[in-house]
Amino acid sequence: MNGIVQLSIGVVVLSAAASYILPDLVERETRPAVVAKSDEASSWTGDFRPEGASTDFLPSRAVTINAGRGGHFNLDARVDGRVVPFLVDTGATAVVLSYEDARRIGYNPKPSDFVGRSQTANGIAHFAPVLINEIRFRSITVRNVRGAIMERGALGNKNLLGNTFLSKLSEYKVRNGTLIMVP
After folding, report:
1. Distance between CA atoms of residues 125 and 121, nearest Å
2. Which residues contact 178 (CB under 8 A, 6 or more apart)?
3. What is the DSSP string of the chain?
4. What is the value of pTM for the model shown?
């Protein structure tokens, strides 16, 4: 239980720090330090609704996710064609990738790319600004998403799906333990 609490605190601290750091950094940067190439097309399409869920209030193109343990929303999205696990974080300013997952999907930041700083539960962590070509989750596709790659080990292999993705949706909200996203 201690590890879960520590991880939760780390995510909250990282999200709060990123909300102050990333907007200024994104405005100052004309080009991200790292840009990946997409080498696979995604075939994920269609809507998903939990069995028995009422669709009265949902637009036909809405995508829904039920909260998991602890009330968190976890999903597997495709980043430039590669599957990446995310924690949806409405308090995070940006999409944040772990160093390990970023490398796995084709981003190769150099040490000099880590120009941003963020306070985490484990101390100061550095990040590299990134422009993600495409994030796809079921019927939702968002292109040209600004984000951050954290330095090795800074996120414990967690990735955050923050507001640089969510703000490009028509709508998102949480209702009765279900996250509703409308492209």
Report:
1. 10
2. 50, 53, 64, 65, 66, 67
3. -HHHHHHHHHHHHHHHHHHHHHHHHHHH-SS-SEEPPP-S-----S----TT---TTS-TT-EEEE--GGG--EEEEEETTEEEEEEE-TT-SSEEE-HHHHHHTT----GGG--EEEEETTEEEEEEEEEEEEEEETTEEEEEEEEEEEPTTTTTT--EE-HHHHTTSSEEEEETTEEEEE-
4. 0.71
Sign of CA dihedral 77, 3, 19, 117: negative
Measure the CA angle with vertex 167, ends 12 and 90; round to 5°: 20
Distance CA 51, CA 40 (A): 31
Question: Along the 183 residues of the chain, how does pLDDT read in single tens digits?
Answer: 544 444 444 444 444 444 444 444 443 333 455 554 433 333 323 344 444 445 456 778 999 999 999 999 999 999 999 999 999 999 888 999 999 999 999 999 999 999 999 876 677 889 999 999 999 999 999 999 999 999 998 888 799 999 999 999 999 999 999 999 999
